[in-house]
């Protein structure tokens, strides 16, 4: 019993905890950015399709990883543009895609004046 108590009362080192906390913080920032992009009010005009596609590529990379779908026909311009935006993120980690989305949100927040609804 004494050896068990000694093990239980020994100092515990959570070396992975800051990393998990950082990832949790990143996920929270990402979710907040996604929510603001979806529901926020733009006070300086509407984003271009190119700006919207940047979000789309990062979002798909976070949710599904690398794009493995076959390239759509060029005549399917909207589908092709989305496919290309996602393919542009190929090889990016989930964490880096979240950071990219957050950075893009910050840039577009300034450019388009995105405010809470």
Which keywords apply here?
117 residues, mainly alpha, flat, two-stranded antiparallel ribbon, 5 helices, 3% strand
Q: What ranges have pLDDT less than 50 throughout 5 or more consecutive residues?
A: 4-10, 12-18
Number of separate helices: 5
Strand content: under 5%
Please state the structural category: mainly alpha
| Element order: H for helix, E for strand | HHEHHHE
User: What is the makeup of the main sheet?
Assistant: 2 strands, antiparallel
Percentage of residues assigned to helices = 55-70%
| CA-based shape | flat
Strand order, main sheet: write it out: 1-2
The separation of the N and C termini measures 59 Å
How many E strands? 2
Q: What is the typical, i.e. mean, pLDDT? A: 86
Any idea what the radius of gyration is?
20 Å
Would you kindly provide a written description of the structure presented here, covering whatever features stand out?
It is built from 5 helices and 2 strands, in the order H-H-E-H-H-H-E. The relative contact order is 0.18. Helices cover 66% and strands 3% of the residues. With 117 residues, the protein is mostly helical. The longest helix is centred in the N-terminal third of the chain and has 23 residues, at 17-39. A two-stranded antiparallel ribbon has the order 1-2. The termini are far apart.
